[in-house]
């Protein structure tokens, strides 16, 4: 509890403040500059690309990459739809499952708490490796080329469950649960009516973390997805980064205009795809930032 | 104390549960493949049941779905073609087919993973350059000699006998090659308009070095044109290595090629088959000379600057009119094949720089095997026989449906319909018999007659039919692969000081056991020679 | 309360808390399927797999799949790369995150929140997107580095994707760029949680800002630093596959400095098509990581038992 007067005394000098602000301006700038470059490259005209390479201030601009990209909306929209679907379903399932696990092990009176915490914790220490996982998933579970194979591996993040557990432990007073039980509420009622509403910040954080995790995942697609119709966005980008031909072929078919195609630089097409893909996340995250920071820190700091 | 006890009990329960789950999982494995199999068969047979009711002579054959896994880009109308094929096969042998095209860049990884995990497949496209012999050693494919006698009479009648000598391992046949040209001469292929414009004497250009003045000229005169496009991204052989030894010597590759890199060669004109590795001074000289040359080309910008990491195919660049020459393989009609592949945009001319010889690898360059996981190999062989003998089936897969994907303009001649949704993936050299393919615009009428002549006249590589068995040097090959993957991009010119790097590479190859592999290869060749050449 | 025997107590509590148990059963099953079943798959590392006998039936070969790791020297290289990068990342990221957190905490005005928004942005991008960003800078022909920066200084072009000397720095930079911001957020919160009275007392004693940071801020957030460090010790043998595989575009010439256990396992799986050998490498990775966590934890426990994880 510092009085205002005290706090002012303990602040840095205006010069230092300016220096720090300057430093943070530069740092912020460094964080966004690569994204800006990619956006500009995606808009650069082929003539400028050939003669000057990638520039922050190109001589000539062109929308051609985006035009072609959206002519072939089939490929991209499908990938978008798949990514959104997986992200939404995966995130909801993930948050719910993790909360349902975190709550019992947060309860001091639950006798199997130690065991189930250990079961969870052990997965953070040891894993079977990617080869073994691949074989179990494809052989025993038959998940090859299914969306399930993209969701299942990311459902439970042990560290996040621990954060949730800590959150429950610290914010939900045992007396609250005890009194609800005396009123005759069942465990499920207590969980859904009392615990969850009180834990919204951590739920929101987990939802955001889950969204990022599912949206940005490509490794599981690399392992398990075979059919081109099932490519999520990130995997589509991966294919195109290695082989721009793949997207070009599709675009070419849609555009049916060879002249247009010869003016369409590979780089613009690649970079335009990157912009289209990172767009949603960049637009959304500032709105969630508040919850995110709050939830993440409560769990981690007190864990 | 109490807590500890309950913990232990719970632990025991968990372990028990896990064992049960594991057992379930491994049970599910055997059942799983069957189930998924039935599931995929059911929907595809249903629609046909109503359309075809004629009682064929196959009444005793149960319905079966033959999956065909092949090297090709999936196309929009694949399902329509599959439907047509099903109509045909339903009537003939009560079978349906499932077309599984897999794009070039992923083909090997994907099929080998399918083999590893025991996925159900029937006909599988395989080739020497797709690790066919390695997969045979691991038991991926079924022996075909008996099946061929029983259900593959058509294949035996039409296929050049030399073809069936190559894909053998310890005397047993595991694949049936596609019927086409059996070998290819190595060549430089140029765009005709450029050759005419600059009056390039292509007949005199026989090595990479000969191209230098022309690269220089084209770089100066034609802005934006790439002279030599190399894609050295991992998984590729690494560009310029192609034709390096062939244009400079009589050495031809034999034996294992770790990481798709030629490491062991023999002089095919010599009376005695003496194996040399790329550590041999003569070959080191060629390596250094050629790598230095590529480095020079790279630094001068004749080679694409992303050659070290690119995985893009050169065809794309060619179609955009940004590439005027490439190295390749030649057979009668190949220039027109390139032209067709490039939407008839440009004409091409080639100059063949090496004598076409038939090696095991070339004769086994495009084949179909029957997977060990096939549940009805006999039916698979029946389908394969149709692919080799029935023009309707072959052309359906390669060109699509008449009237929809192509127009018939002559007895044996067609015109593809642009952007029709099928027929752009080059399947002619993949499926069955290319000799049954309808001719496309530009292809001469006597194409297939010329091929038969070409095949009959081809020179036989002395070691044709020899196959290396790597089981004794598996670890060494793995190590050589690991070493070479780091140095493959030498051949793209993207590395500075290539001569120095070659020495460094060779040192590591030596440590990795290249000499042991060489000795093993020599021993196997000597044994094979004694058995087959006396 | 009446004394019960172990089993009776167990059954009693099983019944009494059945609803809580039912709650966590679905997740428990997911953990078994996704994490525990693959642990059994490690037996593949001791087998020579062939297609005929299948995975279960193939012959056991003991440690032969591991030999290859040792004889080729690959094990040394990939372990060295993985561990050194992990440690460097940990050190660089922790120091930078704390520095940023301390600095941002001192800022006056409302700008701090805005800076935070920018600083955590890279965290939200996938590694695939990051590889595109890096490629925009390093493309040999047109990349911003070659086409602009080096040209301004009159320097020769650098073929980034085949010059291994630069990559350790590039990788450290990219990693820091992506993760420092989010790390800082955690420390910012930790610093915000420090009781203001300490600072007030320090001001009365005439302690400078620097002294306050050194003697109040850092010691106060020390537990969190330790917890996060122990946790990341567990992944010292793991590497961000995207960072080491996609960002350098899987360029062969860079393997000496970019090859880590994860990329190696993947490549061996894909190129050699030998699941036995790649399982062996993966198992070695898991075991080493496991041992390292135990060691770190026991070391921490020796120094300060309260701060150990278990």
Automatic annotation (TrEMBL), chain B:
InterPro entries recorded: Bact_solute-bd_prot1, DUF3502, SBP
UniProt keyword Signal present: yes
Composition skew (Polar residues), residue ranges: 33-53
Pfam families: DUF3502, SBP_bac_8
Domain spans labelled DUF3502: 462-529
Residue ranges, annotated region (Disordered): 29-58
Keywords per UniProt: Signal
Signal peptide: 1-25
Name recorded for this polypeptide: DUF3502 domain-containing protein
Organism: Paenibacillus agaridevorans
Source species taxonomy: Bacteria, Bacillati, Bacillota, Bacilli, Bacillales
């Amino acid at each position: 509890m510092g009085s205002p007067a005290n706090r002012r005394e303990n602040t840095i000098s205006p010069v230092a403040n300016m220096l720090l602000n300057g430093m943070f301006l530069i740092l912020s700038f460094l964080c966004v500059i690569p994204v800006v470059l990619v956006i500009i490259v995606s808009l650069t005209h082929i003539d400028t690309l050939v003669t000057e390479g990638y520039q922050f201030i190109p001589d000539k601009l062109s929308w051609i990459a985006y035009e072609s990209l959206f002519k072939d909306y089939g490929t991209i929209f499908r990938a978008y739809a798949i990514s959104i679907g997986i992200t939404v379903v995966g995130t909801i399932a993930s948050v719910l499952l993790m909360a349902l696990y975190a709550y019992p092990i947060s309860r001091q009176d639950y006798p199997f708490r130690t065991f189930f915490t250990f079961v969870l914790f052990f997965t953070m220490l040891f894993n079977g490796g990617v080869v073994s996982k691949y074989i179990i998933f494809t052989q025993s579970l038959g998940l090859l080329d299914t969306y399930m194979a993209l969701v299942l591996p990311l459902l439970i993040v042990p560290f996040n469950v621990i954060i949730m557990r800590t959150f429950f432990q610290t914010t939900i007073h045992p007396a609250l649960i005890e009194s609800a039980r005396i009123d005759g509420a069942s465990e499920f009622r207590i969980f859904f009516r009392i615990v969850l509403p009180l834990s919204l910040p951590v739920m929101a954080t987990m939802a955001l973390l889950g969204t990022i995790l599912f949206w940005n995942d490509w490794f599981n697609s690399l392992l398990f997805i075979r059919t081109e119709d099932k490519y999520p966005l990130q995997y589509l980008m991966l294919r195109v980064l290695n082989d721009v031909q793949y997207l070009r072929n599709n675009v070419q078919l849609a555009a049916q205009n060879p002249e247009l195609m010869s003016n369409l630089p590979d780089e613009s097409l690649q970079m335009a795809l990157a912009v289209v893909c990172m767009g949603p996340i960049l637009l959304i995250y500032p709105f969630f930032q508040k919850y995110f920071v709050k939830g993440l820190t409560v769990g981690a700091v007190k864990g | 104390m109490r807590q500890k006890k309950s913990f232990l009990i719970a632990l025991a329960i968990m372990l028990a549960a896990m064992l049960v789950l594991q057992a379930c999982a491994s049970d599910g494995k055997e059942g799983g493949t069957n189930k998924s199999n039935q599931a995929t068969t059911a929907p595809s047979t249903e629609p046909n049941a109503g359309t075809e009711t004629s009682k064929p002579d196959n009444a005793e054959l149960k319905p079966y779905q033959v999956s065909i896994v092949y090297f090709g880009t999936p196309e929009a109308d694949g399902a329509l073609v599959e439907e047509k094929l099903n109509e045909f096969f339903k009537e003939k042998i009560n079978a349906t087919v499932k077309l599984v095209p897999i794009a070039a860049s992923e083909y090997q990884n994907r099929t080998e993973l399918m083999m590893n995990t025991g996925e159900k497949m029937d006909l599988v496209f395989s080739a020497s350059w797709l690790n066919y012999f390695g997969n045979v050693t691991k038991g991926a494919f079924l022996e075909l000699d008996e099946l061929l006698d029983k259900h593959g009479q058509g294949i035996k009648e039409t296929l050049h006998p030399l073809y069936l000598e190559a894909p053998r391992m310890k005397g047993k046949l595991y694949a049936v090659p596609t019927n086409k040209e059996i070998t290819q001469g190595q060549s430089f292929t140029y765009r005709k308009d450029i050759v005419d414009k600059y009056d390039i004497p292509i007949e005199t250009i026989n090595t990479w070095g000969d191209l230098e003045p022309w690269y220089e000229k084209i770089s100066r005169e034609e802005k934006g044109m790439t002279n030599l496009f190399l894609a050295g991204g991992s998984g590729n052989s690494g560009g310029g290595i192609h034709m390096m030894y062939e244009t400079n010597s009589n050495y031809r590759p034999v034996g294992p090629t770790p990481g798709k890199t030629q490491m062991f060669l023999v002089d095919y004109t010599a009376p005695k088959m003496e194996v040399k590795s790329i550590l041999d001074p003569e070959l080191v000289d060629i390596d250094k000379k050629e790598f230095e040359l590529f480095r020079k080309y790279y630094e001068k910008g004749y080679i694409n600057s992303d050659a070290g990491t690119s995985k893009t195919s050169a065809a794309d660049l060619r179609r955009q009119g940004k590439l005027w020459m490439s190295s390749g393989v030649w057979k009668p009609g190949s220039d027109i094949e390139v032209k067709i592949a490039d939407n008839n945009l440009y004409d091409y001319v080639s100059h063949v720089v090496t004598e076409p010889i038939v090696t095991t690898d070339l004769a086994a360059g495009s084949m179909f095997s029957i997977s060990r996981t096939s549940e009805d190999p006999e039916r698979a062989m029946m389908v394969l026989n149709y692919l080799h003998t029935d023009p309707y089936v072959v052309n359906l897969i390669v060109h699509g449906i008449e009237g929809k994907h192509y127009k018939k303009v002559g007895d044996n001649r067609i015109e593809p319909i642009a952007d029709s949704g099928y027929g752009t993936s080059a399947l002619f050299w993949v499926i069955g018999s290319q000799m049954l393919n309808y001719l496309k615009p530009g292809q001469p009428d006597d194409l297939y007659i010329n091929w038969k002549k070409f095949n009959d006249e081809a020179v036989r590589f002395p070691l044709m039919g020899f196959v290396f068995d790597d089981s004794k040097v598996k670890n060494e090959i793995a190590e050589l692969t690991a070493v070479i993957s780091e140095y493959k991009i030498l051949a793209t010119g993207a590395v500075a000081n290539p001569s120095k790097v070659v020495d460094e590479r060779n040192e590591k190859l030596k440590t990795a056991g290249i000499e042991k592999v060489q000795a093993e290869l020599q021993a196997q060749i000597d044994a094979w020679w004694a058995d087959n050449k006396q | 309360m009446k004394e019960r025997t172990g089993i009776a107590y167990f059954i009693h509590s099983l019944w009494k808390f059945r609803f809580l148990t039912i709650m966590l059963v679905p997740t428990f099953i997911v953990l078994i399927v996704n994490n525990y079943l693959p642990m059994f798959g490690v037996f593949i590392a001791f087998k020579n797999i062939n297609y005929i006998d299948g995975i279960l039936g193939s012959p056991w070969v003991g440690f032969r799949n591991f030999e290859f790791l040792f004889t080729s020297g690959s094990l040394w290289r990939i372990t060295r790369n993985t561990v050194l990068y992990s440690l460097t990342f940990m050190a660089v990221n922790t120091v930078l995150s704390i520095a940023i957190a301390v600095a941002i905490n001192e800022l006056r005005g409302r700008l701090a929140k805005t800076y935070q928004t920018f600083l955590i942005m890279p965290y939200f991008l996938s590694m695939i997107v990051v590889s595109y960003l890096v490629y925009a800078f390093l493309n040999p022909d047109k990349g911003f580095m070659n086409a602009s920066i080096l040209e301004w200084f009159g320097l020769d072009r650098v073929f980034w994707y085949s010059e291994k000397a630069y990559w350790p720095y590039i990788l450290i930079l990219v990693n820091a760029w992506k993760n420092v911001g989010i790390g800082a957020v955690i420390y910012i919160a930790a610093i915000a949680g420090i009781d203001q009275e300490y600072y007030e007392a320090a001001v009365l004693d005439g302690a400078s800002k620097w002294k306050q940071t050194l003697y109040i801020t850092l010691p106060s957030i020390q537990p969190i630093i330790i917890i996060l460090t122990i946790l990341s010790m567990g992944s010292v043998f793991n590497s961000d596959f995207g960072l080491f595989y996609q960002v350098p575009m899987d360029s062969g010439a860079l393997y000496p400095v970019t090859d880590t256990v994860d990329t190696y396992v993947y490549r061996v799986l894909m190129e050699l098509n030998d699941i036995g050998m790649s399982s062996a490498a993966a198992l070695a990775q898991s075991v080493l990581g496991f041992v390292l966590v135990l060691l770190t934890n026991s070391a921490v426990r020796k120094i300060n038992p309260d701060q150990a994880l278990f």
